[in-house]
Amino acid sequence: MNALREPTDPYLWLEEVEGEDALAWVRARNEETRRALCDEAFEADRAAIHDISTRPTNIPFITRRGAHVYNFWQDKEHVRGLWRRTTLDDYRSPEPAWEVVLDLDALAKEEGEDWVWRGCTTFEPEHRLGIVSLSRGGADAVVMREFDLVEKRFVANGFFLPEAKGGASWIDADTLLVATTLGENAATASGYPRLVRRWRRATPFEEASLAFEGQASDVWASGSVDREPGFERIFFRRQITFEEGESYLLKDDGAPVRIDLPLDAAFDVERDWLFVKLKSDWALPEHTYPADALLVISFSAYLAGDRDFTVLFEPAPRRVLANFWWSRSRLILTVLDNLASRIELASPREGGWTIAPLEGLPAEASLNAWALDAGQLGRTDEFLVSVSSFLEPTKLALVQPDKVIETLKEAPSAFNPAGLAVTRHEALSADGERIPYFQIGPKQADAPRPTVLVGYGGFSVSLTPSYLGAIGKVWLERGGVWVVANIRGGGEFGAAWHKAGVRAGKKLSHDDFAAIAADLVARGVTAPRQLAAYGGSNGGLLVGNMLTRYPERFGAIWCVVPLLDMRRYTKLLAGPSWIAEYGDPDKSEDWAFMQGFSAYHNLEAGRAYPPALIVTSRRDDRVHPGHARKTAARLIALGQPVLFYEPDDGGHGAANKDQAAFLSALGFSFLRKTIAAGSDDKALTV
What we know:
This protein is of the alpha+beta class. It folds into five domains: 12-50 and 414-673, Rossmann fold (3-Layer(aba) Sandwich); 61-164; 165-259; 263-315; 316-411.
């Protein structure tokens, strides 16, 4: 029936994303799931979640381009969204007068396309011309089209590139630096751009000159343009693995010269400053700098051979640098101190740097800082900060150059927090490491309660507090408990915490999550029958392993856009880009440990598994939907309770707020019928 079928994997045919047999299977599973979960309670939850996400009083987050601040907005009437603008002064008012720049719903209707907004890169400082990126159905691949922000229309005969992965930067008003997968041998094995081209206006893209070339085995190649007056330059990047890469500076003679930095270091060049954040210890002749340190030096001096760095941030146990970026004249640092956020400002002064904390922000909140201004030219020392916690609605503040903090907007409450509390706990993992987690739920719990344990544990991603919004409305208000796990593989405590949870350590990261599950039961918060594991993408791999390795600890598994077949993941879409995180299954020494966390392969006949809801997307061009499809099919064949759902669009996330509300409500309906069901209710069956 199907060329992809192999005797060793009877479900290989489900990897054919658009295959006739595969789509028939998907539609049948979707219908089963709708029958099982889409009842009156589901509809009530979907309406509540949608109302919360589309309220006109939600915060419209902004970016300043020239005289205006821009916002992309979706609500009930504008499902695909509006790109709109106003002035900063008007934005401060309770009801700003927004001017629509691009109506995506109208555009999609006019062109017969399922457009999803992916942003606009404008040519500064005028910010009149921009390259708009549009995704079909939410995929990572985009169509790029030149847009006039003054005329509010696409430029006739302007820059245009058909659907592909990649992006573009402006060199000047008539020239782009483009990295794209379009063209022969233009993609890496991971499906990202391998070539960077310099493209002149009114010239066929096929004639664009080659500016930089990566290798087919790289994850991607990219280029960036610094147009700061007096510091104009072009950089290129070979991302060799997800963790390591080489960067190059384009010299005046047109030859790229490698910047001699550790392969796993992050760096930024601003004016004549080179900032380097280390992920491993760096031994230089005069000094060894520790992993997680942030260093600074004159860029021109560094290129000339100087290695006398100034240390701007020195890590400590469970105190790490989460983020850093340059405003107009100072560096903004976001620090995680045992998961509590702090913002510090570093400024160059005669004879050195001064570093001071930004005062006036809540001590217990989660803080995120970013530039108000798009691009580099015209950037000021004003910046934005979001202030968030699990139970308190998010606030958006503007920090002035003199450090005065002005609250611009505050999100409305989505649920009643009365009687709820946030507490911190630690569980003892298999190797004795203490693993922290947040517990959000009733202050007084008189009996075990339905509990959802959420985790990720990969790629240095940190799970920090954020307002629970719809989760609070449909879960916490009804007496449920929400738990956020800070397991190894994440970035909560720096490079060592991440490295402990990669490759062979990925199994240990999963042990961390299982240890929290056991700790919740031991503390009387919940019982195994009332505990669900929830995760997406790398978190989907995590909860897939809870299904196969620790089924007795959970009453339900909610698994979204997951990796599950670790034997074939490198042959599916962007899979090769994650070898540094998981290992290479084609190497016997790697497969020896990888097979222990390949959930698809570890499903066994005769073993009881908790009910599972597995959700993916046909338009996900990052994590192949075959992972989810094949695992669901194998569970069905084993006679296990599993539901599967795959919408036609959405990519690696929801395409719009309608779909997001539907998928969230689907998950909460699943929880209600499994871990929140009464003791007399039957287990979920299909």
